[in-house]
Specification:
Layout (H helix, E strand, L loop, with lengths): L3 E4 L1 H17 L3 E5 L7 H9 L4 E4 L2 H10 L4 E4 L8 H7 L2 E4 L2 H14 L4 E7 L7 E2 L3 H9 L5 E7 L11 H14 L6 E3 L6 H5 L9 E4 L1 H4 L2 E2 L4 E2 L8 E14 L22 E7 L11 E3 L5 E5 L4 E4 L12 E6 L1 H9 L4 E4 L1
Parallel strand pairs: 1-19, 2-3, 2-10, 3-4, 4-5, 5-6, 6-7, 6-8, 8-9
Antiparallel strand pairs: 1-13, 11-12, 13-14, 13-18, 14-17, 15-18, 16-17
Helix pairs in contact: 1-2, 3-4, 4-5, 6-7
Bound molecules: pyridoxal-5'-phosphate.
Pyridoxal-5'-phosphate (PLP) binds next to strand 10 and helix 9.
Length: about 350
């Protein structure tokens, strides 16, 4: 059945094993993040078999499945939790990232009831403007957090590159280390220094040695670093292909005919007149993928546009004589893969 994601286990395994040993050699534990493949058990298994001991995901539902299947795995919940999901979060997570004192108090109550004490990383916002106590208030707030019982406040962490696109630098990483030193509480041992985007500093040998953990998804699953705009050295990028089927091929004008308003998503497109073009419709749409993140393997194909369930491509310049029923392969950006792996209409095939 199409559309489907054709996932190359061997390539992902190589990336996982390379990055795990690269990080471990530098005194850093790696949490393998499964969210880009929607918490897939197959991906968790690849991580566990290739030197990654911590399985991280942003959704409690995903960790629940992973924990049931791999009870021995150490699980990390990387989206700061909702209070309404804390009972389940404590059950399925060995470690939880938090950024709120009240939430931590409720975790403390839940863990006392359950007799299960989770490890906690308290998140610090170093400037990216997503989760975490703002760095200038971090020492005070995290000292308060240290007085809460029934949780094991193991470390502090930060996330960069996701909202503001702020890059990790020697300066902001040093500042994070200083925050840990100023808190000066012996149980706070670890610093989780970010995600794929932080690998660059490790490669350059400039990541402070006090950083003891990284949470890595994209570099393993895609071999890329979207925020850094690069491929990650020594990783493979031929990890996942999206396969979609052609349901119509017709010669049509390049500019719509008739008065135009907005499209189904309230967007207005600019059309340039290239005359009559040979166009194909694929049975995949915005519900399954974002067309801007699709790169055809056939370099002569142009992706034009997609609506909910249809993606239009221009195949005029192709050498291959495509027919209805043929399958077109695409590489995906991180964002497009995230969406495709979440769509129930897209099958995942691990090869
Ligand atoms: C998604 C996410 C990660 C993993 O990011 P990658 O860029 O895929 O390595 C790490 N930490 C948090 C908090 C995340 O939300």
């Amino acid at each position: 059945m199409y559309p489907r994601l054709n996932i190359q286990k061997d390539s992902i395994a190589k990336n996982a094993s390379y990055l795990a040993s690269f990080c471990n050699k530098n005194g850093i534990s790696i949490a393998g993040v499964t969210k880009v493949l929607c918490g897939s058990l197959e991906l968790a298994e690849i991580f566990l078999k290739n030197g990654i001991k911590i399985i991280a995901d942003s959704r409690v539902k995903n960790l629940d499945r992973i924990k049931s299947c791999f009870p021995q795995a150490y699980t990390m919940l990387i989206r700061i939790p909702m209070i309404s999901e804390l009972r389940q979060a404590v059950s399925v997570s060995d470690c939880i990232l938090v950024s709120d004192i009240h939430t931590l108090t409720v975790i403390s109550e839940v863990s006392r009831e359950k007799g299960k004490i989770p490890d906690i990383f308290y998140m610090v916002d170093m400037g990216d403007l997503r989760e975490g106590v703002w760095f200038e208030q971090a020492v005070q707030e995290i000292r308060t957090a240290c007085s809460i019982g029934n949780v094991n406040l193991l470390g502090i962490g930060t996330n960069l590159g996701c909202f503001g696109g702020v890059l990790p630098t020697v300066e902001n990483m040093r500042k994070l280390v200083e925050i840990k030193e100023k808190i000066n509480v012996s149980t706070i041992r670890d610093i989780s220094g970010g995600s794929t985007v932080t690998l660059k500093m490790l490669e350059d040998g400039v990541l402070p040695k006090e950083i003891t953990n990284l949470r890595i998804g994209e570099a393993i699953v895609c071999g890329t670093d979207a925020t850094g705009g690069r491929n990650v050295p020594n990783t493979l990028q031929d990890t996942v292909l999206l396969e979609a089927e052609i349901i119509e091929i017709k010669d049509k004008p390049s500019v719509p005919y008739g008065e135009t308003g907005y499209d189904a998503f309230g967007r207005k497109h600019e059309f340039i007149d290239y005359g009559i073009r040979k166009k194909a419709i694929l049975a995949i749409g915005e519900q399954d993928v974002s067309s801007s993140g699709m790169t055809p393997m056939d370099k002569n194909i142009k992706v034009l546009h997609s609506s909910s369930d249809h993606t239009i491509i221009d195949i005029t310049d192709c050498e291959e004589n495509y027919r209805v029923g043929d399958i077109i392969d695409f590489k995906l950006s991180y964002g497009a893969l995230l969406r495709a792996s979440t769509s129930p209409y897209v099958e995942k095939i691990f090869k």
